[in-house]
Amino acid sequence: MGLFDNMKKRKELQRLRDAADSRPSPESLTALATKLHESGEADEALQVAERGLELFPLSDRVQTVFKFIRRQQLNQKIREIKEKILSQPSAAVYGQLAIIYKDMGDTHKAVDVCKDLEEKFPLSENSYMIIGEIRDQRFREDRLAVDGQKAMQNLEHALEINPHNYKALLMLAEIYIRIGAFNLGIERLESILTFAPTDDRVRKLLDESRELVNPEADEGEEDLEFLFMDVEGRKAFLYDVREVEEGLGRLIEPSVAGTPERAPSGETLKKRLDKLEKLPGFMGALAVDKEGRELAGKVPFHVNKETFDATVTTILKAARNAALRMDVGDFLLGDVRGAFGQLLLQYGNGVVLGVMADGKTRPELVQQHVKTILAGVDAAR
Amino acid sequence: MANPYVPILDRMNHGVGVKGSMVVTGDGVVVATALGHDLEEGRVAAMASSVIRGTQSALQALDGSFDRFILTAVHGRMVFFDVGPAFVVVLTEKNINLEATLLEIDAAARKIRALGEINIED
């Protein structure tokens, strides 16, 4: 590459760096990270992508770019491990591969590797630990009962193989504390102290758990299914477990996220939906809360509101059930197209908004309207 | 006789982030399947049938039908694509290049339609 090209490249990189510094956004940070990666500056590319994740953790664009860059860096490592699996397979090597995929966010591949690991090395706890960690992370993020239950099952399985697995015991104890199953949490913490008696954090967790346990509850009576479903229903843990340094404050606190989300005002939403009259080809809109109750709706005069509402809620219900049934977490977005036109269903800030338009309307315009309305929901609370 | 749709699904499954696919009718009859080994055929077919039937019957009230449904959840995506009397259902990771994946699915759907009338055996 000539001198002129090099200068041009450096100038472009500097421009992108300046943009990312002065106006950090998913767009500016991903543009910089991608350019750095293309220029061979792999380490800086990864740093920028990580910064993007910290600032905009929910951005699909940032997540995609981060995963891509990280994947490129890890691909070489993956190749080496795969060669090792062929030549010298072992539970540890399979475990390494699964962990790399897990860290990359490729949980599907991580689980695939774990299944192979379980099949070939049934006496190893690695696969149960990795799947347990994946599920535990999802449980902490999404509060779905199935994730908590599968985390618990896999970690308990790991303990059956190795009763002194410190990480499994601690993760289990924290899961049990979060859902309020203190007796089970205490059991796991006491187990740790039998082989790690000087672990101060565990001792503190144990002391605090003993204060919180219901003295009238039998040890065998903690109904785990009920407790997990309760967390899912409230979308919040009973207690949070904090990482604090020794001597500084409590480790177990009632979860502040336990306060029920206040549904946005129907009037506010109605005003926002009224603006959809300007959307060319607009056929109707419906906003519902997490329980499926109508918050606001708007249809043009020639559309039967009852029919429209029934259509949207039926499709939304089918989509929600599908997501839960396939164990992929909560429903976020549905994009339906066909002879009827197009229907966009999007979840945001405790509301699901469905907007229907005819087939001639640009889908990007519908998406823009939906995003604007949902973004305004939070501001309006 | 080998199922002619499976190679088409297998090829589509090579796309980045695709976990598996199947061709299924609205009644849940599985025409062809190429699923990853952590996906149970019965569960996927039941889910797909429920979405397809629910959506089709809801839209009939508006004198319509659907030919594409992209469903995104926190940890994954499902794409439903009409191929006549059945649908191609593709399950993917959430963070995929959606446009590229849709192109692959569209290509697969065209190949499936080109094979002629889908043979549905109970």
Q: What is the strand arrangement across the widest sheet of chain B? A: 2-1-5-4-3
Query: How many runs of DSSP E, i.e. beta strands of chain B?
Result: 5
Which chains share the greatest interface?
A-B, 44 and 41 residues
Task: Tally the helices of chain B.
Answer: 3
* Biggest sheet overview of chain B: 5 strands, antiparallel
N- to C-terminal distance of chain A: 55 Å
Kindly estimate the percentage of residues of chain A that lie in beta strands according to DSSP.
5-15%
Order of neighbouring strands in the sheet with most strands of chain A:
4-3-7-6-5
Number of strands of chain A: 7
Low-pLDDT sequence parts of chain A: none
Radius of gyration of chain B: 14 Å
> How many alpha or pi helices of chain A?
15
- Structural class call of chain B reads alpha+beta
Question: Regions of chain B with pLDDT < 50 over 5+ consecutive residues?
Answer: none
Question: What is the radius of gyration of chain A computed over CA atoms, rounded to a whole number of angstroms?
Answer: 25 Å
What does this structure look like?
- The complex is a heterodimer of chains A (381) and B (122).
- Chain A has helices at residues 3-22, 26-38, 42-55, 60-87, 91-104, 107-120, 126-142, 145-161, 166-179, 182-195, 200-212, 224-234, 266-274, 305-325, 363-379, and strands at residues 239-241, 252-254, 282-289, 294-298, 331-338, 341-348, 351-357.
- Chain A is an alpha+beta fold.
- Chain A is globular.
- Chain B has 122 residues and is of the alpha+beta class.
- Helices cover 37% and strands 30% of the residues of chain B.
- In chain B, strands 2-1-5-4-3 form a 5-stranded antiparallel β-sheet.
- In chain B, helix 1 (6-13) packs antiparallel against helix 3.
- The longest helix of chain B has 20 residues, at 41-60.
- The model of chain B has no long low-confidence stretch (mean pLDDT 88).
- Chain A binds chain B through residues 60, 63-64, 67, 105-108, 111-112, 115, 138, 141-142, 307-308, 310-312, 314-315, 317-319, 321-323, 325-341, and chain B through 17, 19, 36-38, 43-44, 46-48, 50-51, 54-55, 57-59, 61-78, 82, 91, 93-95, 97.
